[in-house]
Amino acid sequence: MKIPFIKESTQEFIKEARKTPNYSLLDFLHGYIYGRWTYLYIGIGKGDHPLAKKYVTLKKRLGIKPKDKPATDSRGMAETYHGKAIPLETAKQMVQINEEINIPDLEQVIPYKRARSIVMKNPEHILALDCPCRVAKENPCTPIDVCLIIGDPFANFVREHHPDRSREITRDEAIEILKAEDERGHVHHAFFKDAMLERFYAICNCCECCCGAINSHKSGNPMLASSGFIAQVDEDLCISCDNCVEY
């Protein structure tokens, strides 16, 4: 039954939420706020939004203190909000999927307690979204429309709530975005989030200077999982320039 005053994409999100095991009302509210006010949410989270300082002040007044935990600690945000680095070829394969997929509990691939499933409905429905991390930054990297939202209900939800910051694209256009970002040296992340129905929903193409997840990870909050690949040095080609050391 359709509810007149609630957007169709929101109703679709609610319908999928009800099918998701252990997905609480709090999870739904978190997911709705994240999806509906993405730019405010991430801008505050990164500290770039004018309200960020007020948010920190409010947390202090409420007695909410940040937790000190090493990057190897698997508690808290590390269990529930994360992305996994993937190589270009894998990213290209993910935007070329042409059938619905339901693969739950990828524990060996996505090493977290929650948000480790790939459930794709209408995978051909792909959006290019203005990157919230780049939008929040005063002088961001360009271009900014490099976040790929893949499949429904996420693509429908984002398109309906952010029509001025998103556009529908073809698989070929998505591949071109991935290739261009790869050539810029940016990292492809498959993003999973507990509040986003505990499943894969986007491929972000992240740069170190703008990405909130990368900078949070570098600060000791383990938000990102490695690709699982190990670099090997070709001694015949290496000139010992040390440019790769920082990476």
Characterise this structure.
- The protein has 247 residues and is an alpha+beta fold.
- It has one domain (8-225).
- It contains 10 helices and 8 strands.
- Strands 1, 2, 3, 4, 5, 6, 7 and 8 form an 8-stranded mixed beta sheet that branches.
- Strand 6 (187-193) and strand 7 (199-206) form a beta hairpin.
- The chain is globular, with a radius of gyration of 18 Å.
- The model is unreliable at 67-79 (pLDDT under 50).
What is this entry, summarized?
36% of the residues lie in helices and 19% in strands.
**How many strands, which pairing sense, and closed or not: the largest β-sheet?**
8 strands, mixed
Overall tally of domains: 1
Q: List the uncertain runs.
A: 67-79
Give the % helix. Answer: 25-40%
What does the radius of gyration come to?
A: 18 Å
The run of helices and strands is HHHHHEHEEHEHEHEEHE
List keywords for this structure.
247 residues; eight-stranded mixed sheet; alpha+beta
Sequence-ordered SSE layout with sheet pairings:
Layout: H1 8-19, H2 25-36, H3 38-46, H4 51-61, H5 77-80, E1 81-86, H6 88-94, E2 101-103, E3 118-129, H7 132-136, E4 147-152, H8 154-161, E5 166-169, H9 171-183, E6 187-193, E7 199-206, H10 212-218, E8 224-225
Parallel strand pairs: 1-8
Antiparallel strand pairs: 1-6, 2-3, 3-4, 3-5, 4-7, 6-7
